[in-house]
Structures are given as C-alpha cells and as structure tokens.
Specification:
This protein is an alpha+beta fold. Helix content is 18%, strand content 28%.
Length: 285
Amino acid sequence: MSQRQLTPFESWVMEQKGTERPFTGLYVNTTAPGVYHCKKCGTALYRSEDKFHSECGWPSFDDEIPGAVERKTDADGSRTEILCKNCGAHLGHVFKGERFTAKNTRHCVNSVSLEFQPTKVPGVRTVVLASGCFWGTEYYLGRIPGVLKTVVGYTGGHVDNPSYKQVCTGTTGHVEATEVTYDPVQVDLAEILRVFFETHDFSQTDGQGPDIGPQYLSVLFYENDEEKKLAEDLIGQLKAKGMKVATALKPRVKFWPAEDYHQHYYESKGDIPYCHRYREIFTRS
C-alpha cells in the first residue's frame, strides 16, 4: 500500500512521536458512522462504534480493528505506545483500568494520525458557505457533530476550474468557500448556519480580518427557497440584536474543489485559524 507525503507537522507526530495539542484535533468530537484509517498508509484502524467521549482532549476508542494496531512500551518505560502495524506510524497511547467503557480500554489517538471515511448515509445533504479564508471556515464547520465531510474550493465565478493563483487576483469572480456534507438526522442546517455566522465577522464588507479582496467575502449559497428563507430568518435574528450583516445570499452554482494542499490545512499544519474565532451569538434551546 502506497504512503502519502506528510507535512512537517504530520511527520512530527507520526514519525517523530509528537503529540498534537488537546482539544484541537479534527476528530475529538466526531460521532458520524464510518472507519478511521492511518493517514500515512491508509490502513483501517478504528471503527466509529468503538469511539467514545473521554473528555481527555483527543479521540478515544475502546477497541481497534483486529490486527491493525501494534503496542510497544513507550520510551518513558511506563506508558504503552500504539502504532499502525502496517507502516509503523505513531498513533498515540493506550490505557487500561480507567473504566470509561465496559472494555476498560482507551486508545488515546492523535487526530492528525487519522483519516476518517464516513459510511455512506442515505439522505445526506450539502451546503456551500464562504466566510473569508477557507482554511478557517473549514476548521470550524468540520467540527460540528453530524458533519460528515468538508471540502474547500472556489465558487461564484466565471472561470472554469480556477487555480488558487487565479482566484487570488480577485478577477475571476470566485470566493473561497467550503462545501459541507452533513447528515440531517444528526444535525440540521440551521445549526450549521448558526456556527457559520458565529465563527466570522459577518459585518465586514471588504473581506475577512486581514484578508482583503472579493475572494474573501461572506456569502451563503442556498439551493432552494427553503434554505434561502432559513438564512433570511437567521439574518433577521442578528439584525434584531442590532448587528450589521454584510453576508450575501446567492443561489448555489458550480463548486470547484481547491488544490490538495488547501484541504484540512490547519489540521495538517498543527495550527489554529488566525482570522476566525468562535463566539456564541444565537440562543440554543
């Protein structure tokens, strides 16, 4: 099985046995059905039904796919390291006796060592949202429980399959956007849109934070009248709070995925967004 080229941060974790910061990984709170694979070689390691919330800050599993994970005594002589048995990539550590689940085992795994492949679920939906640099947009929207997949790319312009370099000229008409695939049984579109508004400055008219230009505008792309009305209702709630809303509502058009190095950018770099942050605005029941 071929191995993918790793970023410096991915290499630091998987090959040099580093550890990502707690509560920053993409898969800390994921609940969707599917299989977690080794990011380095693609071997299936864990199933979603064995994942549980331990509040430790990293994805936790109480079992592995048989034969997929190797255990070794850690260099500190006290902990047990877990590695992908196929390629030797460092995954994290395994602990016993904590009584989180009936199996009494916790695989504490770095998100960056994993690649999640969701099970195909009937009735999945997608929505396309733009809120400045798509790295930050994807970072927050991809962490919503019930979101199955995110892809960053370009939409709304007049050039077919544009490159990042072309879009950055500000002349193609595209905005940087994120296509969000979600299971409506687990999360409704209203919650995704609430998080969309709560993670960027929707009052800014010339870009987002320090990123200035037409490719960084706030845009919500709707697929039908129902989605448009939902967006208008949420914008109405914001205006009722005295907030200015510059977010444009536009019909959904062709979405072009961006280059591979833009996908899950912050996860692959071990960093957090510089121009997006979360602050609660809407009241949840």
